[in-house]
Amino acid sequence: MISPLSEALLDVIADALVDKGYVILSDIIPQEISLTLLGKMRAAQIWEFEQAAIGRGIEQQINTDIRADKISWLENDDAIDSGYLNLMEQLREGLNLRLFMGLFDYESHYAVYETGAFYRKHVDALKGSQNRILSTVFFLNPHWQPDHGGELVIYDEDDSQLDTVPPRMGTMAIFLSERFPHEVRETFATRISIAGWFRVSHAIHGF
Ligand SMILES: O=C(O)CCC(=O)C(=O)O
Ligand SMILES: [Fe+2]
């Protein structure tokens, strides 16, 4: 059984989201889970991953000038993925209880950025689209060095830089999807992350 995220930690995350809309945390995921996720990625056939696309629905397209990562979606019926997804479910419930966010479900993918890859500045949700509400990024890079680059840079609504986050193993960023433009700087070593999005239900919100 996975140890749950503590009530105290959920309080910290909820307070930070109210206060500034984002939070960077380290080591909130039990190590046995992050190590299994990393093990899965080390054994994975990265060339079988999909080339990541930009845009949603029929507007979706591949544009490697904007993003050049390869992705693979997490599935609930996969024993390793479900360890992580269960924790995100605890986060979803904890935040709904504290902030009445109405978070309904969660989608997430592993992303592999090989040397030279990046993801140019973007927002994860269009304003008012009410689909992706809260973004999470979890990093799986145990020996990250400053000269490997690959930082996640978070900007405010006026495009001032708020935070520069090295993608070190165990670090997690959580931010309001509509509010924070962000980018992945060019990486100089293979960089692995799990990006995920809590969504609200269109049915409930009347779309
Ligand atoms: O891997 C990261 O640091 C962030 C990726 C990202 O912004 C995304 O997939 O939308
Ligand atoms: Fe993003």
From TrEMBL:
Sorted alphabetically, which keywords does the UniProt record give?
Dioxygenase, Iron, Metal-binding, Oxidoreductase, Vitamin C
Xref: InterPro entries? HIF_prolyl_hydroxylases, Oxoglu/Fe-dep_dioxygenase_dom, Pro_4_hyd_alph, Pro_4_hyd_alph_FE2OG_OXY
Native species: Shewanella denitrificans (strain OS217 / ATCC BAA-1090 / DSM 15013)
Q: Where is the signal peptide?
A: none
UniProt protein name: 2OG-Fe(II) oxygenase
| Ranges of residues in domain Fe2OG dioxygenase | 99-200
GO molecular-function term, one example from the UniProt record: ferrous iron binding
Highest taxon above the source species? Bacteria
Q: Does the keyword rRNA processing apply?
A: no
Cofactor dependence is on: L-ascorbate
GO BP term, example: cellular response to hypoxia
